[in-house]
Design brief:
It is built from 5 helices and 5 strands; from the N terminus they run βαβαβαβαβα. The protein is an alpha/beta fold and 175 residues long. It has a single domain, classed as Flavodoxin domain (Rossmann fold, 3-Layer(aba) Sandwich). α1 packs parallel to α5. The N and C termini lie close together (8 Å).
């Protein structure tokens, strides 16, 4: 099995590093291939909504130079894991751009499972609920254009290192 992990490289917290390492070691321990992609907002232009990736060239963004490697890393994977800090109940701008591009590829092909993991040590219950609701709607529950893709994603949220072990057990079950 091939797994792609995408994370925001601007997030340099202890929790972000520990979480990423723990997930990668769990996947490698199960003898799966891991492809890691770090993204940052300065290198990723926002989606223009042209839908070329959905219509004329499925999975190919008009900003191929910036997104080409990322899409290539995701192409042919069985599972994509997104790691994003949560700020005021939502993911980072860089991860939003990634969700738009990679999510469209997933909708077009439907071949891989997506896991979104949000993390913040000081998140309120309202922020966790907002994050989960946004992801659920963004990944398919409110998507009238591409119905039926709602079972191809999972959302998790962690607030501390003690929650990482149950998270990795859940990821093992998905593999």
């Amino acid at each position: 099995m091939r797994v792609s992990i995408i994370h925001d490289t601007n997030t340099k917290t202890a929790m972000a590093g520990t979480l990423r390492k723990k997930i990668i070691s769990t996947i490698k321990y199960m003898n799966h291939d891991v492809i890691e992609s770090g993204v940052e907002i300065s290198g990723l232009p926002p989606c223009t909504g042209c839908f070329r990736c959905a219509t004329g060239h499925p999975g190919k963004c008009m900003y191929d130079r910036q997104y080409g490697e990322l899409i290539a890393n995701v192409d042919g994977t069985d599972l994509v894991i997104y790691l994003s800090p949560v700020i005021f109940g939502t993911f980072t701008a860089a991860m939003k751009n990634v969700f738009d591009r990679v999510g469209m590829t997933a909708r077009n092909t439907g071949v891989f499972l997506q896991v979104v993991i949000g993390f913040a040590e000081d998140a309120s219950n309202e922020e966790i609920s907002t994050f989960t609701d946004i992801i659920v709607k963004h990944m398919g529950a409110a998507d009238k254009v591409h119905p039926g893709k709602g079972d191809r994603y999972h959302v998790f949220f962690i607030k501390c290192e003690q929650e990482m072990d149950p998270l990795t057990r859940s990821i093992k079950e998905l593999l």
